[in-house]
Queue: 4 jobs
Job 1
Amino acid sequence: MSEIVRDPEADRWNYHPEGPVGLNPLFAWPPRPGAILKWYSGAWLQITALTLCFAIAVIGYILFLPPLAEMQSFAPGWMITIWLLNMVPQTLVAGGLHWWLYMRQGQGMRKKFDRRDLTRKNGTFTFNNQVWDNIWWTLGSAMTVATLYQWVIFWAMANGWAPVITWAQAPVWFVVWMFIIPMWSGLHFYWTHRLEHHPKLYKHVHAVHHRNVNIGPWSGISNHWFENMLYFTTYFIHLIVASHPLHLMFHIYFQQVSPILSHSGFEKLMAKETEAARAGDFFHQLHHRYFECNYGTSEVPFDKWFGTYHDGSAKATERTRAYKKQMYT
């Protein structure tokens, strides 16, 4: 009987998903229609970051977003509403997930990637505390920059300086653009993220985010001001590509709320013994552990194309460490 060989990489983690870290099969060759269908049904027909962000966008659009006609001039009423539409979901989702996973410890260590707890009494972090550091950089830095950009885009839409569509005008494009937004986000993120790993930008800017080697829900967009100025330029695509305000709302929450789940530190959220929702992203967890790999997302496989893909194996860790050593020597 052959003996099962355990990949030594698994021993470095509390929980390590089996097999290589998955990438979107849409870009694989030869085409695999079954795998593509499974990938997208898993993303859109379960409780995931995508479906959560889409639900928040629909609720926010229907119940709270002011009509574009009110946004033709900068006025406190609608501008404060946009700010609250950023602050409230971010606080509720990140705060709720942090409470359940790290304070209440509602599922213990089940599906938790890293064995360690979040850091306290460490001078590396603002306020000597990882969670308070992350809350400050999220609500103080990220939400401020995101809101400023959104004010400009909504104002441009309202004044006809950005192309706006309705469902009645372009129902097919309305749906297609909704599916493309996560891919555009991944494309934009890969290249801005690679830029931020330039030694000078990393030292003075991106290092704020990478204080979080062991990540938690508040780590998602805990970024330096300058990094947020780059990160949220992804929204400016709506100044060029014909969009509905709901597209922008979905893009907003996908960019701001989905990192809460991907940085949660847990692959799945458990309800007793049931896997209730997909949460953490081991693809990005590996980036926080080893830095110079997995710069993008699994949605668009730029890392595989450009040789920076870490598939979760010990061999990939050795390759990444060699690449990092070469970069910094």
Note: The chain has a mean pLDDT of 94.
Job 2
Amino acid sequence: MNKTVTVILAGGRGSRLEPLTRDRAKPAVPFGGLYRIIDFALSNCLNSGLKKLLVLTQYKAQSLDRHIDVAWRHYFCRELNEFIDVVPPQQRIADQWYQGTADAVYQNIYAIERERPEHVVVLAGDHIYKMNYGAMVDFHRQNDADITVGALRATVAEARQFGVMQIDRGQRIIGFQEKPADPKPLPDEPGVCLASMGIYVFKARFLFEQLCRDATRIGSRHDFGGDLIPGAIDTHRVFAFPFRDENRDATGGVKREAYWRDVGTLDAYFEANMDLIHVDPQLNLYDQEWPIRGFQPNVPPPKFVFGSDRNSSRRGEALDSIVCQGVICSGGSVLRSVIGPRVRVNSFATVEDSILFEGVDVGRHAKIRRAIIDKGVQIPNGMRVGYDLELDRQRGFTISDNGIVVIARGERIEATVEEQQVAAAMDV
């Protein structure tokens, strides 16, 4: 692994996650209360023994840069030639934004070459999964491959969003189509395709040659899945590496169904967070064999108050939920939700099936249902969110296809006169 450099592509706009990406890059969006989306790729790298990381940023990178600085740099020792470097567009080769995944790596080719690697791992920083990249590098070396592509089983309908591969019995790729309208299924499983995970291992010298050639090719999209990989299949050794899930259950056994999520839409993001709160969560964050790391804020433990008086309806409680540090549930109720750090749920408030980012304050008698509320939002006393979607639209909130209400950071919110009157009457 000392001769392997990892490049993490973390510059996407994440436009389908608006308004959560209005002020931050997609990999910096909070996930699971305590983490950021990029923490899963970075944890995989650290657990796999990959400690030479280049994180390529582009859009709204300040919060991502800050998160990596406070949460990740102390895991790497410069004296041992370990590093995690956040690299904004240098424009040393071209005076433009990245034109594709291959172009992003090409424009930073000097930073990679400087380390004189034998192999280069390229992956995205915006997916949720656990994977040992070291096993993939070993597979790549054993097969003397020029390119190895991480492969995931997907349904035909799902595969339309990915690169789709056909392989021979030796795992060598013999066909590759990027986001095909009619994906080719596996020969023995008509409803299943072999999809690209967007994770690649390259021989370093081969990668440099291909990037330089692609940069001058007229009409190229400068994309790994759209150009480099299909163009190399017939002339070079290109292999598929089947995804080996490191996601274990409470007993330590690998879960039967492989867990990999592209949280590219608001509904996909919401469902992936909800995966965490089950009794036996689909994604196990409590596995000490494959820890997921992130920033641990220096704040007090969560606190639940007013619950000891059994004769009162005022009770601070959280059921089937994740509750982070610094949370105060002051007589309010939290059900099936993910609650980020420093959130306050005031008396008689109810939060159900929702995701609250850091610093959200839910007023007395407020009711939140099926919502994502961004950092620092103040919910007024008595306000109801998620109960009347038409009213939520009139307030300027975003409504997802599945009816999830999303309140952006910095949103100025006012309860209706009726909501204020109801809240006041309940306090009498």
Note: The longest strand covers residues 192-203.
Job 3
Amino acid sequence: MSALPRYPRVITIANQKGGVGKTTTAINLGTALAAIGEEVLVVDLDPQGNASTGLGIDRKSRKVSTYDLLTGDATLDQTAMPTVVPRLSVAPSTLDLLGVELEIAAEADRAHRLRSAIASHMAAVEAGQAQRAYTYILVDCPPSLNLLTINAMTAAHSILVPLQCEFFALEGLSQLLQTVEQVKRSLNPELSIHGVVLTMYDARNNLANQVVADVREYMGTRVYETIIPRNVRVSEAPSYGKPVLLYDLKCPGSQAYLKLASEIIQREKSLRAA
């Protein structure tokens, strides 16, 4: 496969464990990046479609979805929908995604479907035929290491790993890192770990503080300085179809995601200069 184009930057948000804050991170990081002027697309590759719902996309309005994108029946332009956030679009998901693995399993390019769709979109951008030229594409993965996640990793420049501050956090991380290495060796040599973001942190919990210390010792500088706190406003926001940054800008969760976006932009500058 040809090298990924420099723009847009494709960051896959992955962790095979559920409930660690992948979707929340995708929605609010996308919102924060859009707020500072980036043109952002969230690609929802989770059949549950929570990123789509959390960005206000009603299930009935998802006429074209990432299922159509991966089967080759729709382009990125045809799949993407605007959200309530300026400069933030979403390629929504439906339960049809549950069957996509069986449909494309026998195809030689089954792991490259998303990468090819992004490359086609870039060609349309260069030809002046695309509706939007994205600077960031954030891919929200399902809570498993299946073909959907492999597609997301094959398409990505880097992986962002949300990690809940809980007892078994490191156990799941080592398995994910092994998968990243396998994808890097066989499918996408450019893939790297962008960073690990610690989520659902409660400063009153001694175990949470120990997990933070352990993860920083294990992963070093790859762990972002910003930690996302456990915050009821963050949990409430999706039920209103809004990112927490729109629901309550001043709450600790919103402020943490703004700081994380700033930190990611700084890390991006370092990566591009390297």
Note: The domain at 9-273 is CATH 3.40.50.300 (Rossmann fold).
Job 4
Amino acid sequence: MAGSLAKVFSLEKGRSVTWEQRWHPLLERWVTITSHRGGRPWQGLSATANDDHRPSFDPQCYLCPGNRRISGERNPQYAQVYVFDNDHPSLGATVAPPPPQSTFYRVAPAAGRCRVMCYDPDHQRRLSHLENNELEIVLKSWRHETEMLSDEGWAHVFIFENNGEVVGVSNPHPHCQIYAFPFVVDTIARELRAAKTYREAHQRPLFQDLIQAERDDQRRILIDNEGWLAFVPYFAQFPFETMICPHRPVRQLTELSDLDIQDLAVVMRAVLGRLDGVLGQAQSYILSVHQAPAALIDPEDYSLYIHIQPLLRAPGLQKFLAGVETAAGQFLNDAAPEAHAQALMEVPLN
């Protein structure tokens, strides 16, 4: 599929160059699309392909069935999804209050819960390798964890997967993490404010207008089934970035029916399969579940979506978040989202 990507880049030369600022309606900031820079000379580091030849069982892996973790706990001989409390949590359910600071600075306990979910006992499988019914089990587990942690009183449940060495994942076993916070994390707080501002200005839900805009355009849509729409957003900050949105507003995973989850599994499998095939090497990415806090007052202000942010922009080339992205907060995308969507659509599905 690397050949189809080269074809896409060649189409962007000359008159078809996309060089513009696009407004990100969820984060309320500009994204710079600079498609003429996609084929620029590169003398930096090259990203190696993810190792798809790992054994199905690794006796040194902390997450494989039956192995002992760093905490001393032994994993059960699990056959499907396995969830446990992180042995090295960033947040703790019982954290001592920090010492008081001056009146200028604010401080609070690093309270919360951190959970780890193994998707599958097979060490070498990826989320994209799971069958639809296996993906449904993962999604139902996400739903259950959201409900359980929300019932415990945590304000916000954030689910994410760091996939691949480029992202910095510490263990290649197929897994994700689930963080429960006593507050709403920054990105979701930004999106909540944007959704509220938009509805007050236009008397319409932001997410519904976003979905309609993509449907009207059609060029960036990857798959559209009974319940979900997957697309490369017009304002994509990352190469091959993908959003998966429900047709109807859904605040949290807890509001999804089993049929909703069945439809979502089909879409996710197709999207992840195309991402793994478009560059001729398994894609490294950050997958996250954007869902509302448990105490959202107005359900029209927000809708759940699955966000996939790939970190490879071309075969062997990593998308680095360097000076302008990290220091200035101004994202540059080196290819037009329309071109990335076209390349993804050319990947045959199994």
Note: Residues 121 and 158 are 23 Å apart (CA to CA).
